[in-house]
Amino acid sequence: MPIYEYRCEECKKDFEYLVFRNQEPEGCPSCKSLKVSRIMSACGFVCKGGGGETVSSSASVGSSCGGCSASSCAGCGH
What we know:
Blueprint: E1 3-8, E2 14-18, E3 36-39, E4 46-48, E5 54-57, H1 58-61
Antiparallel strand pairs: 1-2, 1-3, 4-5
């Protein structure tokens, strides 16, 4: 059972919803509006340095590994 992310078109808040079969959320948990749409989930990853220390993560840098010294994500060792 996947967890999808949704955004309320009224109050603009994002929320997660555990989907059973093809069931959609009944509305926004904050304002109860029925105007909700599924949004693309952010992917999460962590880049490790040579000694195993965390050099950056998607939470702090967005969608790239800004603190990593490798020339590509394949060279990151992750």
